[in-house]
């Protein structure tokens, strides 16, 4: 953390503009070494960048003295012309400045976390934002990165402290009438209300489904049009389509965004009894995939459809048939109706618009806090209740990274690009 780091923080050149960031105690010295006179804090200035007297570029330079900067330490930015040669020359010049080194993936954001500029939940939201590919993912990531979960946890912690203070008061001053008269159930009521609220949050749809996509399995007997439907929904030739029964023998997965919602479409082997050991393995995988799917599109006989499956007649160009959806993967008729149905069903499985989505780590910490709150509510001994409330606070601290998260920091910040 005492090193001064630098990296290209914009996209790979060539580009119109390239942004190089420098962060650490020697940021001003590095900026002065290349640009000469330092600009006023937070005011852009046009400066020639030189190395050993040689002109490298004319750039806009900015400096942000810590701790009021993105990383919480002295920070400088060089806004260059985005050619490969320009960027390479400036990075080489920075490498020659004593005390500077190239940044590691996610190191700028990690420093922001270490210096209290963001908490762990906000950092996770930023990582999700960088990886967002759909509008739904973008909005959920912004809610998390903007502190939606952090503010909620802060509110819960304040109420937990009130409950803990009530228990401690009764432990220390239970013999005094004014404390005893405040009501022995105050802490229990606070803990019970808080437990109910956290339980409601845990009942929300998970972030993993939003990140990985709603799983849609396409199942049915051989030659029912499953692969053709997959190709039509994705808009490209993902699966091989032939008239030979059993062409698809393994799962074929294709991510796609429909209506701003991420889906993972899964083509499966035709369901039938087979003595071919390879095909039999594919059929078994198809059955498991159908059972685990969030949405199941059934292209077989309607009376054989699994419960809750969407029954699809996928060859309406050859004549009408039974089903919830009539479509033709060949002509495209009915595909818009199926897409609208998928979007409608997916919205019920994903977090609501603007709602913070909990990932597996958040859920584990909140589940632990919930268990300790329930223990505090049911405890007959004030000492046990006090300890349970303390453990609940510690579990909530792990959501925002105030305690017990060292084992996962490397994995989180490793998801970031070099200059972030």
Quick rundown:
This protein is α/β, with parallel strands linked by helices.
* Average of pLDDT: 87
The H-and-E topology, N to C, reads as EEHEEEHEHHHHHHHEHEEHEEEHHHH
Question: What portion of the residues fall into strands of 2 or more residues?
Answer: 15-25%
**Between the first and last Cα atoms, what is the distance in angstroms?**
15 Å
Characterization of this structure:
The chain has 420 residues and is α/β, with parallel strands linked by helices. It contains 15 helices and twelve strands. It has helices at residues 27-35, 84-95, 107-114, 120-131, 135-145, 148-173, 177-180, 186-202, 207-212, 226-234, 277-292, 335-349, 360-378, 382-400, 406-413; strands spanning 4-8, 15-23, 45-51, 54-64, 75-82, 100-102, 214-219, 252-258, 261-267, 295-298, 310-313, 325-326. The strands form two sheets. A six-stranded mixed sheet has the order 3-4-5-2-1-6. The protein has a six-stranded mixed sheet with strand order 8-9-7-10-11-12, with helices on both faces. Strand 8 and strand 9 form a beta hairpin. Helix 6 packs antiparallel against helix 8 (186-202), helix 8 packs antiparallel against helix 13 and helix 13 (360-378) runs antiparallel to helix 14 (382-400). It is flat, with a radius of gyration of 29 Å. The two termini are 15 Å apart.
